[in-house]
Amino acid sequence: PAQILSGGAMHINADTLTNDKSSIMAGGTLSGNIGTLDNTEVPGERVITDSGSVTSYWRDHHTGTDSTGHSTADYKPPAIIQEITLTPTIYKEKAASTGSGTQVSALTGGSVDQVPAGANPVNATNNGGAVVSPVTQVVQAGGTVVSSGGVNTGIPNNSLYTVNPDPHSHYLVETDPRFADYRQWLSSDYMLQVLSLDPSAVQKRLGDGFYEQQLIREQVAQLTGRRFLDGYVSDEEQYRALMNNGATFAQEYQLTVGVALSADQMAQLTSDIIWLVEKDVLLPDGQTVRALVPQLYVRGVQNGELSASGALIAGDNVRLALSGDLTNSGTIAGSNVVSLTAGNIRNVGGRINGNDIGLQARTDLDNIGGRIEAVNSLALSAGRDLNVVSTTGTQTNLQGSRTNINRVGGLYVTGDDGLLAVNAGRDLNLLAAQIGNSGPGGETILAAGRDLNLGIVTEGASNYLVWDKKNKRSDSTRSDVGTMIQAQGDIRLQAGNDINAKAAGVESSQGALLATAGRDVTLTAGETYRFVDEAHQHKGKSGMLSSKTYITRDILAETTAQAATLSGDTATVLAGRDITVQGSNVVATHDVNLAAQGNVTVGTARETSQEEHLRQVKTSGLFSGGGFGFTIGSKSEKTTLDGQTVTQAGSTIGSVSGQVSITSGLDTHITGSDIIGTQGINVLARNITIDAAQETARNKTTYEFKQSGLSVSLGGGIIDTAQNLMNYSQRAGEVSDSRLQALYGYKAAKEIKDLGQALKKGDLKKDVSLNVSIGSSKFKSETVTAETFARGSTLTSDEDINLTATGSGAQTFDGKAADGDVNIIASTVTGQNVSITAAKDVNLQSAENTYQSNTKSGGSSFGVGWSFGANPGLLIQGGKSSGKAGGTGTTHTPTLVTARDTLTITSGNDTNIIGAQARGDTVNLNVGRNLNIASLQDTETYNEHNSSGGFSIGFGHGMSSTGSFSQGKMNSDYRSIIYQAGIYAGSGGFDIEV
Question: Which of 315, 443, 763, 944 is the most exposed place for a label (fewest CB within 10 A)?
Fold first, then answer.
């Protein structure tokens, strides 16, 4: 790569300036009048792959024992690909290439003590003869990063330098004295003398003083992206100070010349130093020798902050004025000021660093996956749109897909009193961006002439696993990633039209948060989605001559809300039209104020869950028929469950130690949400509605049984007696109650006694029979339930709560207010003193919760049997049954208004307390027209209808037939008042005026 270096100022005049993977660095001010500028980096990718296997296990249940089965499939999901920046590969004669600048490490977390440089462009791989060493970074206890490396041990191939093969020479590389101005350049001899070492007795150095200073110049640029380290303006002054620091550190920690600092020693550094390290050097003739090379150790460089290994434009100050566009994918850095003006500015994956940064685009300014970081101030402005966007990438293969954030678009200020100001003439769009201002005395201002949008990008993953065609699993996740704005000082969001925030986090830990919009402020929740569909079927033996097939399937799909949150020491939201908070939060340590000239709506975000489950067992072959018998045939049992729920994630408007004030020029509507103001709550609007959001649940359960086949059993006489004996003995072992065990034991003993007596008489021998039958039976039941619930709102304060509905001022024909209602439905209001004032009506009401259940079932059977033995004959029988049951219920969620001290209700027209309770130690009511109090009944109804019928025809000693039919009905109704509506006063009593 090319280099343009200046120890002082540099000025560039050009129609087009292209810095392609090269460096332009000035020790002073870098200025220019330029048409267009392209600062182009080397793009690359970090590919993270997983490869392995996934195993499914199951249990087979046999008679008397279980066994475990399993199946294994390959697991090779799509790779995760992250965009990174690579170091240009450098090819030199008689030297290996420097590589791409990346290192591959295991997929594990790194140590906090020593951090590899990873994909940092300065981190070149040392592949056998590479001339640039990798960069090592160590994090000190206080978080400061110490960096070292990037040492060039290649032999220069130009006429400026010569290689001295003399083994007695002090240097391998010597500078042409004509170019070096015939002077003695400061070299590492100086540090050796400070260490009281004889330079002539020490191992050969790589180069003379001039060459060593060039190596240090390169390392400074490599590690910091700057011409000089902070505080220096000349190479020799810088080199002398660094060697003094190195000698001091070496004496304190007893370093050995030629041995690089360990990670522990690097962690002890308190200043930048140079130390002589022994390196392998490849000579032009192919010979490898060892030489001492000055190596820089520098503190305070952030991991991945700057690099001179790619495209770099740097200076003490960088002031560039462009008539055209500026595109940056590399690094633009100023030790002090960076000032860039252009038609369009596009920072695409690039970095812009400085103490004070000012970027001005006459049209658009785009920071796409790039990082712009200042210490004292960061000011961005665009004549039209300004976009800060995090980028995503998607990869797919046969086993699924991956979508992940590649590069984060970020703006950062780190100084104690830093200013971060972003201004767009039209729209300011922040998509999954990160905005950070860490100064406690700092200020963050985001302003748009039209709309300020805090948007999202979506990350997700899907997997598709197949063991075989009957055993498979698919799953997927999707999550919205919102913009994060974090500051210690004040934050101000300002839009000429609308402020829209979805799944965003805006937080000031110590300062005030202010959001103002000419029209609407809208806070909405993002969404996380999860889906699983897993199916299995396997076959196992149930006995010697039978098998069972197990079939399962489970499906789950659910969505959850990701709230947007505005948080500060105080929080104020002002809108020229409407404020909408949906499943989101506005919270503060002290006062919270929401004020809109239109409507204020505080509501919920919808969350859903849907489940489907199937369990089926099929048995075929020879299996037990119960007692002394068996069945040859098939049997199936199947259970299914389908469920859907809809819940509501409410919003929170709250103050930890202050008041909450909500003011609207039109209506305020609070649904299923919480308003918490420890020092008071004040709501002022034309009309106020505080109500509940509706949640629902629906479930469907089915059970099916089918059996058919040929059954053979023994019965009568001794067989029946033996079966009874076995049953009583088994039950005695199953129950835990000692009295039941004794009773079952008694019955078993009695059966043994009776059996012995019958055998003596010979009565049982005549009564043994063999029964053979063929037939089928089936049964099915289905239950469906549906429920609705009211998720009420809450207003809670340790101090006073004031709800005031002023109305519009319009009147009815009788001079009463036409509007101005306070409606509180299925919600709770609790405070020290509670005042509810309405120009028209005060309505305290309950909300209904409903329940509905329906069950239907039916079954049938038919069979033909033969009996051989004591009572031979043919029996034909069949039957059918059906049933229905259903119930409905209604309950009420009441409104509860409670004042620990005084409750005051004032209405210009009516006050209606319907299924609600108003409580206070003292209760004052002033009702302009009617006071209505009514309690509501909870109800429940249940209806059941069952019918069954059957027949049997027997042929043996003659013919017999029987038939039967039965049915039953049940109806019930229930009504009761659970919450008695009313006005309840304590020791302060009532004062009611109607």
Answer: 763
